Amino acid sequence: MPKKVESLKDKLDSDLELSQLGLAVSAIQHEFQHTTRSIRDQIRRLKAWADLNEGIEDIYQHFSTNFEHLDNYLTLFTPLNRRLYRKQVNIYGNDVYKFILDVFFARISKDRHNITIECSQTFSKNIIVGFPSTFYPVYINLVDNAIFWLKEQQLPRIIFLDADKDGIVYLSNNGPDIDIRDRQRIFELGFTRKPLGRGMGLYISKQVLNKIGFDLILDEPRLNKGSHF
After folding, report:
1. For the residues 53-74, what does the mean pLDDT come to?
2. Do 119 and 147 fall within a single domain?
3. Residue 182, class by beta-carbon neighbours within 10 Å (0-12 exposed, 13-18 middle, 19+ buried)?
4. Whose CB among 5, 39, 90, 172 lies 3.0–4.6 Å from 228's, allowing a Cys bridge?
5. CB of 121 closer than 8 Å to CB of 149
6. Which residues touch 120 (CB under 8 Å, ≥6 apart)?
7. DSSP 8-state assignment for residue 179
8. Top-confidence residue, 21 or 186
């Protein structure tokens, strides 16, 4: 019994921590929207100077481009806001794929980890009915984990999204194999092999999906090695 009580206490602490994180993200998003509007106005004013001064034209272009990249990240919060979706919607695989590329384009670029994210035609056409705020974070968590374990591997580094005729979705990578002992614990709260990891992502993803009748499991590798969910 004491062990069960301790486990429930750990879960409660994690739930509170996640609630705090959600509130913080919401506040940051609101403030960021206000700040970006102000910066956008200043960029427009700066353009008038850049048009008249060749010396600052390059500076203006770099600043404007980098700001647009930053501003685009703000729009990525939209599918994660459940309040925007009063009813369940069709979640198309192709939209999920594009969202993943938008989130991770910098990390997977050749200048950084040089990772290829691909999807099959079956995945692209696959449809899941639900709330984007439920499913998108699961994909983000799985891809984020895959990038972490792939980045030190030899080329090619591949993350592959697929689906079968029954609508079951698969996410695979050709990173390091998962130890058989870890495979039995990978969805436990607090279990992680990441340095400074918290062991919450896979646990939460599985719990959230189970709550709505879906599941997240670890299957045998499809790309000869690596992980396959």
Report:
1. 70
2. yes
3. middle
4. 172
5. no
6. 160, 161, 162, 163
7. P
8. 186
Asked if residue 226 belongs to a domain, the reply is no
Residue-wise pLDDT tens digits, 81-140: 655 566 889 999 999 999 899 888 888 988 889 999 999 999 999 999 998 888 988 898
What integer pLDDT is reported at residue 156 of this predicted model? Answer: 92
Q: For 39-51, what is each residue's pLDDT tens digit?
A: 777 777 777 776 7
* pTM of the complete model: 0.75
Q: Are residues 95 and 137 in the same domain?
A: yes
Q: Is 36 helix (H, G, I), strand (E, B) or coil?
A: helix
On the 0-12 / 13-18 / 19+ scale of CB atoms within 10 A, 161 is buried
State whether 118 and 56 are in the same domain. no
Which of helix, strand or coil describes residue 130? Answer: strand
Question: Which has the closest alpha carbon to 208: 100, 144, 136, 123?
Answer: 136
Q: What are phi and psi of 153, to 5 degrees?
A: -85, 160
Cα(9)–Cα(13) distance, integer angstroms: 6
